[in-house]
Design a protein that fits this description.
With about 80 residues, the chain is an all-alpha fold. It has four helices and no strands. The longest helix has 22 residues.
Length: about 80
Amino acid sequence: MSHEGSKEVRRNKLTLLSIKHEMFTMDENDTIKSMIARLQTILNSLRSLGTVISQYDINDKVLITLPFKWREQEASFKEPKDM
């Protein structure tokens, strides 16, 4: 019985963390450093439950999460630099 319980707990944790990841936003008073630390905590917890998010998706999440004042710089992160 405890084995089934642990599967259910794990599934519930995974669901909660997936929702936290999906709904993640930058708080108004967050610095980028603190925002990324909060996101990394969620990502590490997901990874410990066997779910790995690609680096591309992580980068995309960070860029989408940035407030409007940072959006002007977003294009420079996404576009390859001319050499």
